[in-house]
Bifunctional glyoxylate/hydroxypyruvate reductase B (Salinisphaera hydrothermalis), 327 residues
Amino acid sequence: MSSTVLVFSDSLPDDQKARLAERYTLADFSAYDAPSTAPGFDDALARARGAIGVSMRWPAETIERAPHLRVLSSVSVGVDAYDVAALSQRGIALGHTPDVLTDTTADTAMTLLLATARRVVELAEWVRAGQWTAPVGRDQFGVNVHHKRLGIVGMGRIGQAIARRAAFGFGMEVVYHNRSRKPEAEDEIGLRYVEFDELLADADFVCVVVPGTDDTHHMFDEAAFERMAPHAIFINIARGSVVDENALVAALDAGGIRAAGLDVFQGEPIGADHPLVGRNDVVALPHIGSATFETRYDMARLAVDNLIAGLEGEPMPACYNAADLEL
Ligand SMILES: NC(=O)C1=CN([C@@H]2O[C@H](COP(=O)(O)OP(=O)(O)OC[C@H]3O[C@@H](n4cnc5c(N)ncnc54)[C@H](OP(=O)(O)O)[C@@H]3O)[C@@H](O)[C@H]2O)C=CC1
Ligand SMILES: O=C(O)C(=O)CO
């Protein structure tokens, strides 16, 4: 009898799903927005040897109800939705999708930088509302991006891709803060390492691209926003959990920072009544960092590669907890 694979989101194109279907019995919950409450989910979880998808939380309690699970393959690079310790303890491999989304996510960060600085969304809406009745003046001016100082918090794969775009494309001075120094990136891109507080105080743009973990939870709190300059623009392409959203609203309201460009929020999806939506000093996007046809396809293919390799006992191309499993 073939192994059961649980598909828990609508993230696999047909050809990639077919690669799984020809090897395994699929328990396919991709039609459900909330698969974990769908009829038959608990039975499928109890049978599954593999699971693949994104945007569903896997706390220890869910993992416990999957006694046969060997491989959990996420169609994302971030693994904050999974209890990694509980997976590793059970010897379950966690696949993820680094690298294939790096450039696309960096492009989205630059989009937010430009959109906030040049007030693109606000002014496009202004045109659409028929308010462009005379040449623009100071009321419509933005601020320059080129040759300004960008502070990046989190100099990993995506942080470095953003830094290259900013330094080589826009002539920006890039400073960074990270858990560990990145000497090669410093040399290649011309980066300068600074302490977190110095970065906050001196940057014209602050962009965060760390993973969502206990350590990074509310890294951007009231004190962090207070250290930033009133002209500074804050960009979050990482996870909503890194920001205390009440503190961000307060900083914007008080003129403590100029604007924010946000791709991610604490509780996604958010509604039109969210305090960070509907204001001209915020560009709010629906978590589209990696959301292009090409990149989402590449992510799905890598996630399927991970799942098949893991279930067939071969090395997975990208196993997040490989080091834990070797212990
Ligand atoms: N908006 C979107 O659609 C997307 C969002 N993301 C988010 O971006 C994150 C980063 O992705 P990626 O660049 O590929 O990951 P990487 O692991 O390559 O980079 C993360 C960096 O953050 C650093 N870091 C981790 N914790 C801390 C901390 N407490 N303080 C300072 N630095 C820290 C790491 O340091 P060190 O090198 O020392 O380990 C690492 O350099 C993902 O985890 C995901 O949450 C990713 C893709 C799309
Ligand atoms: O991969 C991730 O972690 C995302 O947030 C979406 O691509």
